Amino acid sequence: MKLVGRLSIDVPFDVYAISVAPACGRGGGSGRLLADNLPEDYRRRYLEHRDFERDPVMLASRAGRLPVRTAEVRAVAEADPELMPCFAAAVAALGPAVLAIPLRFRNRLSGDVVFRRRGAEFSDAEVGYCELAAPALLLAATELPVAGPPDDLTPRERECLAWTSVGKTAWEIGSILGISEHTAVAHLNGAVRKLRAVSRAQAVAEALRRGLID
Fold first, then answer.
1. Average pLDDT, integer, range 175-204
2. Phi, psi of 100 (to 5 degrees)
3. What is the rounded CA–CA span in Å between residue 102 and residue 82?
4. Within 13 A of 200's CA, how many CA atoms are on the CB side?
5. E strands, the chain, where?
């Protein structure tokens, strides 16, 4: 996503995730992850273990209307011991500084945009900038081709998988194809979802089996 790449120039972050949320609160629907650059191992565990149901970031974001920062997320986690393992795992894997932007339309939650980094906390100016950009990011993410039939990989998704099959990283793939690392990760994650895989390695194996890549 070009918007993500442009935003990261003005507001440095390590990880982003954009999701829609049809239901709020613990134990409700998980929503759908539209776009992200989460580390593969973390993303797989997060989905397999249904951590979205006890993620203090999601719980804090979906409970309010204003941007949520690290202190608020920590307060939610500390209030319920069951949430602390999820909180601690995210800090270790993604960094301690977090910013979550809840997005509402006609007084109803429509989605979330979350940023994390290992550096300093997000400043007021950065929060304001991200808050302005978040609706456009959610709109762009809804237009990504991630919900097609399993075999319906885009040409770019096939390219990214093909380069992954020979050991290239997302950064290297971005350099080869002339796209950003964020965009390469989005294409790879789209391919993983369409092939109903749990990792890039499994997606590559499945694509090779089906003859989708050489």
1. 90
2. -120, 130
3. 23
4. 26
5. 15-20, 32-36, 68-69, 97-105, 108-117
Please state, in angstroms and rounded to a whole number, the distance separating the CA atoms of residues 74 and 148: 37
Burial class of residue 10 (count of CB atoms within 10 Å of its CB; 0-12, 13-18, 19+): exposed
Place of tokens 């390219």: 159
Chain centroid, CA 191 distance in Å: 14
pLDDT given for residue 108 in this prediction: 81
Question: d(Cα 103, Cα 141) in Å, to the nearest integer?
Answer: 13
Contact 17, 4 (CB under 8 A): no
Judged by phi (left if over 0) then psi (alpha if -120 to 50, else beta), residue 166 lies in alpha
Mean pLDDT of 184-201: 88
* Statement: residue 82 has pLDDT above 80: yes
- Token pair 């011991």 is found at 81
**Three-state secondary-structure class, residue 16:** strand
